[in-house]
């Protein structure tokens, strides 16, 4: 009975919003908001998520969904943009129309956001960036950003390779490598490529044969690796800009009759360090995983609580990250991992 009444009210509210037109904004989400199912003191948060392209992304979505619950005082409107910026822009516009209290964006790519951010600003809706960054001329268009230090991650991967080759007595040898890049223009791709390139520039014997995008997905990572293996018969190292592309690369390498990992023909370095990457290292297929922490839900909630209390927040907030390789006790470490 209560539920039915609520849905009648919801439908009525939705019709009301449609009749009122698009530009109407509810009072700071406190009433009559299409997304707010009647709980007037909930903070409404619209999250424009990238997609569901990787294990990292799944963990990130889960982190938001389990943090922004009604019990915790939030109404979450979640949108999966299927890795398309145009879908994210549409989602942000819809959040604005619904009069949310906060907009959170994990931007697919870095550029092209000014117009929609200005629309949010005009309605007085704070925008928080999480995971990937935006490249905008006016930084007042967003409150702050929280995520991984992608350039450092790339450099850490490069330094790991320097040490590894030294240990194997291979420093100074000609080393041929390929890179499976993430979505071109995504800050995780831009930063990791740049960070690794910084170390590459210091090693004259490293030869980057080719870089190509695998769109952060396992299927595309496998496809690109297959084409690399057909083109080059002397690949020593694969840099996969996320774990899922590394998993695709491992399949491609095995299908081509080659081996990878610490005892194999090809060394693989990946980024994220999700649980399946630990499994791949334990299985001896993957050498090293540079951590990128996806658990941003509680971090963004903390930012929102500070903003609600009128406190200042740091504009750029990097998350601490580690690196894991097969020299470690991975079986023990993986037990302590949350993703
Ligand atoms: O590495 C990848 C995901 O932006 C850090 O996006 C994130 C990246 C992550 O698809 O797996």
From TrEMBL:
Task: Please give one Pfam family short name.
Answer: Peripla_BP_4
Q: Name the SUPFAM superfamilies for this protein.
A: Periplasmic binding protein-like I (SSF53822)
List each copy of the Periplasmic binding protein domain by range.
52-290
Q: Which residues form the signal peptide?
A: 1-25
Assigned keywords, A-Z: Signal
Where found in the cell?
Cell envelope
Q: Which domain of life is it from?
A: Bacteria
**Record-linked InterPro entries:** Peripla_BP_I, SBP_2_dom
The record's similarity note reads: Belongs to the bacterial solute-binding protein 2 family.
* Protein name, UniProt field: ABC transporter substrate-binding protein
């Amino acid at each position: 009975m209560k539920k039915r009444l609520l849905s009648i009210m919801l439908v009525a509210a939705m019709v009301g919003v449609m009749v009122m037109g698009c530009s109407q904004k509810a009072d700071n989400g406190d009433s009559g908001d299409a997304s707010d199912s009647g709980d007037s003191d909930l903070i409404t948060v619209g999250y424009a998520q990238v997609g569901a392209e990787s294990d990292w992304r799944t963990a990130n979505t889960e982190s938001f969904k389990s943090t922004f619950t009604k019990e915790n005082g939030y109404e979450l409107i979640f949108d999966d943009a299927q890795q398309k910026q145009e879908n994210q822009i549409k989602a942000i516009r819809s959040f604005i129309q619904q009069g949310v209290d906060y907009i959170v964006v994990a931007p697919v790519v870095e550029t092209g956001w000014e117009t929609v951010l200005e629309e949010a600003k005009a309605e007085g809706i704070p925008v928080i960036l999480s995971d990937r960054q935006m490249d905008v001329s006016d930084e007042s268009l967003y409150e702050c950003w929280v995520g991984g230090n992608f350039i450092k991650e790339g450099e850490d991967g490069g330094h790991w390779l320097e040490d590894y080759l030294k240990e194997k007595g291979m420093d100074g040898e000609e080393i041929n490598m390929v890179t499976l890049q993430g979505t071109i223009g995504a800050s995780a791709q831009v930063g990791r490529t740049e960070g690794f390139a910084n170390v590459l520039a210091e090693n004259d014997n490293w030869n980057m044969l080719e870089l190509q995008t695998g769109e952060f997905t396992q299927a595309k990572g496998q496809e690109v690796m297959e084409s690399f293996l057909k083109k080059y018969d002397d690949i020593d190292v694969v840099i996969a800009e996320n774990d899922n592309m590394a998993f695709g690369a491992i399949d491609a390498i095995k299908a081509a009759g080659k081996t990878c990992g610490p005892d194999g023909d090809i060394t693989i370095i990946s980024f994220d360090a999700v649980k399946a990457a630990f499994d791949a290292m334990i299985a001896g297929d993957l050498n090293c995983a540079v951590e990128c922490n996806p658990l941003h839900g509680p971090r963004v909630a903390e930012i929102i609580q500070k903003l609600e209390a009128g406190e200042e927040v740091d504009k750029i907030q990097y998350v601490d990250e580690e690196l894991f390789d097969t020299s470690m006790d991975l079986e023990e470490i993986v037990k302590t991992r949350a993703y």
